[in-house]
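Repro case for the chain-ordering regression, as requested:
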Amino acid sequence: MKKINLLVAVSALSTMAFLYLPLMAVAFFSVNDSKYGLEWKGFTLDWYVKLFQNDLILQAASNTLVLALVSTFVSTILGTILAIGMDRFPWPGKMNTALDLVMHLPVIIPDIIFAAAMVVAFGFLRTLTSVFDPGLLNMIIAHITFQTAFVALVVRSRLAGIGKEIEEAARDLYAGTIYMLMKVTLPLLAPGIIAGAMLAFTLSLDDFVISFFTAGPDSITLPLYIYAAVRRVVTPQIHALSTLVLMVTVILVICMERITRKVNKKQKRL
Amino acid sequence: MKGLSLKGINKTFGKVHAVRDVSKDIHSGEFFTLLGPSGCGKTTLLRMIAGLELQDSGRIILDGEDITGLPAIKRHINTVFQNYALFPHLNIFDNVAFGLRSRKVPGAEVNQRVKDTLEMLELGEMTKRFPHQLSGGQSQRVALARALVNEPKVLLLDEPMSALDAKLRAQVQIELRRLQQKLGQTFILVTHDQDEALIVSDRIAVMKDGQIIQYGTPAEVYDFPKNRFVAEFLGSANLIDGNYKDGLFHTAIGIFELEKPPAWEKGVIAIRPEWIRISDTKPLKNGLRATVTEIIYRGTNLDISLVPGPVRLRTSTYSRIKIGDELWLDLAPKEIAVLNE
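-- result from build under test --
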């Protein structure tokens, strides 16, 4: 037994190392006072300082944030409405299955296929108006299309957890649809909506493939910038930038986890 | 008419005919119970009265007003749900105030009415607590308060005791009965628990397969069950088949006299275990000589099985009885219920 336990522990640790060593190396080189090479030349935050003096990077960061914020805002609203509509409207059985499938598609379709489809769709729309030239608007629309499905899935699982009896109780106590939504459904859904929004935000922040296919010359985001920069040469600046993006993502994921856990604890008897 | 009238209510779910042509008048101020096994349509009927389910046909009249087409939010009827369905994000005060606030009752009146109702149900100390901090009995009373604060014309209770343990349940049943008598409001209870139905109700409707098969006061339904189902569902009964001829009921275990001649020639009688008396000497009428085969000790009484039959009886004078004893049983004619269906 002991031997097996040791084996399990060692393999778990090596898996962790396999996963996290490259990331730690990036973080390590981002504070290494050497422009090239793998040698440790002392601690510095110069690369981080330089990041904030680089107009291209600042522009990319602002694009990334605008894209993530706008698309998350819209997709959270759409996803929540979609989830409520799917779960609470008395769809006939077959329609329900079909809707379910449609909702899961954006989640399981490979990004590259989704991105190519976006290119085709925007190509068609471009023949009607030049608004759909590659650029931030296209990216926002493309991000919303895939984020909405993720938000809807998260919100829907929360809806299923709440159950219908609570809403029946509200109706039995004279609550009209709007009053019920504002006082009962949405407050109970809030943790699901927040978790969904954070997931959507993280996805948008990290997205490369879909952004790559829909971006225009003025709408470079951080992942696109990193990709372009790395093709030339990997500089410590890129390491610093990657580390920052990574940290933001990790913080978001931890917050999401925290919120979900806290609420689940509080509403255990729900 | 004051009260609730159901007229020809039907409801199907796909191929299942959940409620079949139910018509019943429930008087104002009455404690009315729908009693039946699970799947008999009692909860569906309750949900249609609440307006949470729409019947396929039939009408619902409340105090002379046709409410058939009104949604739940327009019906002056409130419900205590089976799992209480308290709002987990609201404290007890806000839970109870919910119905008043959604009807835009002025704040001062809301405060007063909620306070009065919580005090009536001995929940005055709990106003700031949240549902997940309450015990089962407290949750049940909050659910009751949340419905009663609206002064509904009819209060619906969907198996409100099923989540409570047996001892608490017995206590809550009596409290519920007292509360209803004090308020004089119409209560409609759905339950599958026959003891509960007998304890709390003014009238019981026994349901099976979507129909009301017997209706009456607890004593009427218990003492004069109409058929095998009612006799066995409410309490237990010795059901004895036989033929009625020449003024006597002929059965496999003996020939018995009945109080009144039945409407049939071949049929069933029911004798409740506690209606049978043990006699030292041969009774003048309807005596049965039987041997004890099993004795179950229940504290306040004994449940005894005997042959021929087997016949089950319940007695509280048991000091001398043991297995193998031969006894005279007195099946008095007035203690025999004739089943008419």
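Ordering looks correct now. Chain B has two domains: 3-230, 236-338.
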